[in-house]
Amino acid sequence: MTISEQRPTERTRPERLPLAVLEQGIPFTERHIGPRATDLAAMLAVIGVDSLDELADRAVPEGIRDEAMSDALPQAASETVALQELRGLAGRNRLGVQMIGLGYHGTVTPPVIRRNVLESPAWYTAYTPYQPEISQGRLEALLNFQTMVSDLTGLPVANASMLDEATSAAEAMTLLRRAGKSRSARFVVDADTLPQTLAVLRTRAEPLGIEILEADLSGGVLPEGDLFGLLLSYPGASGRITDQEELIAEAHRRGAMVAVAADLLSLVLLRSPGLIGADAVVGSAQRFGFPMSFGGPHAGFLAVRKGLERQLPGRLVGVSIDADGAPAYRLALQTREQHIRREKATSNICTAQVLPAVVSAMYAVYHGPNGLRRIAERAHRMAVVLAEGLRRGGHEIVHDDFFDTVCVRIAGRAEQVVTIARDLGVNLRGIDADHVGIACSETTTIKDLGTVWRAFGVSQAEIDRLDGSAPDALPERLLRTEDLLTHPVFHRHHSETALLRYLRALSDKDVALDRSMIPLGSCTMKLNATAEMEPITWPEFGELHPFAPVEDAAGLLSIVADLERWLAEITGYDAVSMQPNAGSQGEFAGLLAIRAYHHDRGESGREVCLIPASAHGTNAASAVMAGMRVVVVRCDDAGNVDLPHLRELVEEHREDLAAIMITYPSTHGVYEDTVREVCGLVHDAGGQVYVDGANLNALIGLAKPGRFGADVSHLNLHKTFCIPHGGGGPGVGPVGVREHLARFLPGHPLQPSAGPIGGVGPVSAAPWGSAAILPISWAYVRMMGAEGLRRATLTAVAAANYVARRLAEHYPVLYTGSGGLVAHECILDLRGITKSTGVTVDDVAKRLADYGLHAPTMSFPVPGTLMVEPTESEDLAELDRFCEAMISIRAEIDRVGAGEWPAEDNPLRNAPHTAECLTQEWSHPYSREQAVYPGGRAHQKIWPPVRRIDGARGDRNLVCSCPPLTAYQD
Ligand SMILES: *Cc1c(COP(=O)(O)O)cnc(C)c1O
């Protein structure tokens, strides 16, 4: 009930609540769940049920119902209490000066970027920019990211982010294998590579039959024998910088291609790898303004030379033009992606790291080339002066050429020095018994140098004298001579006022959850509550180094442990790993566990993965990455897994069946009542059952995959558990397994407590993946409690069924379960409409922008349809606004169908309409008013910034970095 509803209408006293209840404050469920009690009653009446419980009974198959929740789940807490508890947990983390390096460095997030990007719902609640006309702001920000990476790496095409540095390196490895001509299966990796990168490469190489050869390349000589690719590090993990031109040339002569893992900040001062022949460059943009965050999230990057752009995994922003000829941005070359190519996709990456990429791009925009140079020089000079002081104190500095990381030889005493430094509040890297690594950064201070010297027993030196006498440690021939970041965007926004307005201007072009509902099927665009978001920018979480001693992160690890326990209870699994940093990575980890299980039992011949035709594209792509062969199971006319076909396939593959991968409820938005049977069939044939948990929002509190027959699932915390989509990432894709698979979960070489020993190795660079955003999901569960979570599920199901009922007479609803009900989403079938009128799903999606609404999911899982998932967070007024817009659009379609408006000139085909197009001569058969105020003027108008964008043209003329200003003239 809302507060206003509680006001007495007659002069009677309201019922008095006990003080203990009043003390709890307003329950968070009232904030998270949109419909008020009276509205929910109205919705249920439309659906034809009396209560949420009755809805549960009718929608969810009896055979899988399992509502028991142990007290492993917390009682609901208010926002105030949850935040107090999080404060307490944050206080248990120990902050120190982090000089461990290894790809994670201190950085300053400029406050203007922290508050107006990272903490701004206009940026963090946005969806992946698949509707480019209402996503121009974040597309431009991502284009800035691509331009920045391309400029610094010296390669023409960079994608719009990868999940982290280690997985970018793995993607580069498979890219080189795909694109190259070599028949070799060997990939040579420089021994001076970040250890977590090397470990992830091994995990990813094994199922693909790639042999990783770790080689000491410090002598500049490639090992004997064949190779298809080579990974170099620049600088190396030890800090050393070498000239790699000759090695690259030698690899090329031997028919191999070369990837370089590079530090972005060092490239501000150093010659770019692209200039000396690298085919691909990978790395992390973390130190461009994104906190270390105990390992993530951060934007990884991947840039390639000309000719490889069509092999590039991940999303790529390109430039095209709109219907009026104005420049406009869109995602390019989508045909490479798993949505389209499935098991033939270039990679399984879907959710990437858009929000961190935007932060890092804006960091470069704000600082510009001169600011970046100064930051890079600070890190470098700190390291130089640090090294000089140590040298004068009698210590041996191993490498003469370095950027920010100093390697010190101190025979037998490395551990002791690291311990002393730690007592003084500084974390260093103990490399082995004789070597210590010390990394400097944007946040290193002169005082920190003094502390390190003390740890080495060197007395405080006179800084100015050292600084004056120590020359740079960057070799002359390796200095960058090219101009840096020449595009005007990196020169215009250096005052805070200018950047603030630029950020606002960009986000004003976009429709995020702060402006309208985003009814994207499969994506669960629910509330990302402010109380959930607040902790992620607290320094107690942001400034933890992932490889610092675990006791430094006691509070955050307690959050991880709570969440693991809670998710296990919710899903019915026995063990959960938080390491995968997207759903796709959870799929990969889960399938690796299945593979390892079969191998462990001596059944390594089991390699077939059955996947229904309706599955999400990542499923097939992940199966291939896990070394499996995909066999497609048909769906029947009702959209369910075709059981006779499944029986046939199971029989055929009795000997080599590894797994089936199904989604539950299905991607058709239906609770299939045969799921137990499906699981039984596969188990009987010796296979394992993977349930894609992306649709868990329809299950929590009602059923548990771990109890109805599945062995393993990933969840998407960025869907069901309130981590915002961030415009396309970050995400967290934890994987849950039953007992027999627990020892095959991912682990980590640098933090053994992050997983089982001897498991399948790491799937992410960081031990606990994107740990710093886990407080969001923690807060959600903490504030909802078991009962609140169940209510959220049922409200989401009610909202989907309400929309389905309201729209059914205007658009056929494609699939329903046996009770005539859908689960948490519904598919509107436009194929008949398209056939008879020519109006397409695209037209409807773009027209919704004129109504100020974001389109539903288009053509997934069924081409020519729209999939609507309203979620529990939308109130009835917003659900109705969406329904009325769709009904109004249907009336517009009918006018096209009736011939009243020509098929080529009508408000649907011409959508979306901009303010500019109203100022042109108007010759359309509908009015300007109809064009831009189709839903009336009651709701605040959102003006799309561009007209419909020409996709094909953008793919033909691929432009993936900021266009020169001349492109905008005339
Ligand atoms: C979103 C989704 C995925 C992929 O998750 P990412 O986090 O984007 O990698 C997989 N399966 C289904 C059904 C999904 O909806």
Automatic annotation (TrEMBL):
Domain Glycine dehydrogenase C-terminal: start-end pairs: 792-913
Binding partners and assembly: The glycine cleavage system is composed of four proteins: P, T, L and H.
Domain Glycine cleavage system P-protein N-terminal, first and last residues per copy: 30-456, 469-747
Reaction(s) this enzyme catalyzes, per UniProt: N(6)-[(R)-lipoyl]-L-lysyl-[glycine-cleavage complex H protein] + glycine + H(+) = N(6)-[(R)-S(8)-aminomethyldihydrolipoyl]-L-lysyl-[glycine-cleavage complex H protein] + CO2
GO MF, one example: pyridoxal phosphate binding
Family: Belongs to the GcvP family.
Keyword presence, Oxidoreductase: yes
Gene (UniProt): gcvP
Pfam family, one: GDC-P
Gene Ontology cellular component annotations, sorted alphabetically: cytosol; glycine cleavage complex
Enzyme nomenclature, EC number: 1.4.4.2
Example of a GO biological process term: glycine decarboxylation via glycine cleavage system
Superkingdom of the organism of origin: Bacteria
Keywords: Oxidoreductase, Pyridoxal phosphate
Function description: The glycine cleavage system catalyzes the degradation of glycine. The P protein binds the alpha-amino group of glycine through its pyridoxal phosphate cofactor; CO(2) is released and the remaining methylamine moiety is then transferred to the lipoamide cofactor of the H protein.
Co-factor requirement: pyridoxal 5'-phosphate
Location of N6-(pyridoxal phosphate)lysine modifications: 719
CDD domains: GDC-P
Protein name: Glycine dehydrogenase (decarboxylating)
